[in-house]
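Today's session is about reading a structure prediction critically. Students often jump straight to the picture, but the first step is always the sequence itself: look for stretches that repeat, for charged clusters, for runs of hydrophobic residues. Only then move on to the predicted structure, which in these notes is written as discrete structure tokens rather than atom positions. Here is the chain we will use throughout the hour.
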Amino acid sequence: MKYIIICMTVYMLCVAASVGLSRLFGFSAVKRGIAAALISILLAVLVGFSYMSVYYHADDTAAAYLADSETVAVTRIDTGYYFDGPGSERAIVFFPGAKVEEIAYAPLLFTVAEQGTDCFLLKVPLRMAFFDGNAPDEMIDRYPYESWYMMGHSLGGIVAVRYAAAHVAATDGVILLASYADRELAPTARLLSIYGSEDGLLDREQYEKGRKLWPKDNAEVIIDGGNHAGFGNYGVQRGDGKASVTSAQQQEQTAETILRFLSARNVG
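Below is the predicted structure for this chain, in token form.
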């Protein structure tokens, strides 16, 4: 909702500014209308670009997880990064949170891949997952995994849900990190929801509404002491709660929970 309010506010300011400028130059009614439209578009683009250009950067420790190890090979692909571990049956496609540098999630996905489930970390346009909601198509078409799960953090989780809801035959389930469902998932799908007890940014009202859209096979795990930003390595996020566990500890618990969910029917 806050993004809608911001967009509407920016739009109204753009319209007001463009009308004022066009009157200043004494344009006719028709020319004023054209000028107003053009200036509004230009200002909206400039404001939008400025907003998108400010984002959360991955910390120095995250980049270390883009290097190969004895168990995980990390490859740069067109859509992001491929974490190829010892597993061969299933894979996860991960949508980053809004305005977060994608490699901030490398430590978490490296750990998951190391424990037997390969991962694809998406690099999305302007660091906003909804700009490339169909990105998993390329991976599903190219790699021969038996099962595919969509996973995302915050806004990325919403996009993961939308993809799974629209591609029932291609996906087995969704893993939400501090996120919620806004589309109904297929009855055959599985869903795992994980969030921290100290999360200050998760929209709890939308989260509770989203429960009605969960498939029957679902599980919810709350990480005691975890917060919103702890799923990635990008520092403190404005408005978030204060975690009593480190990001490394939160991610370790998250990876363990994911692996139990993928290999069993009950992780709670």
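Discussion point for the tutorial: The beta strands are 73-77, 80-84, 90-95, 118-122, 147-153, 173-177, 190-196, 217-223.
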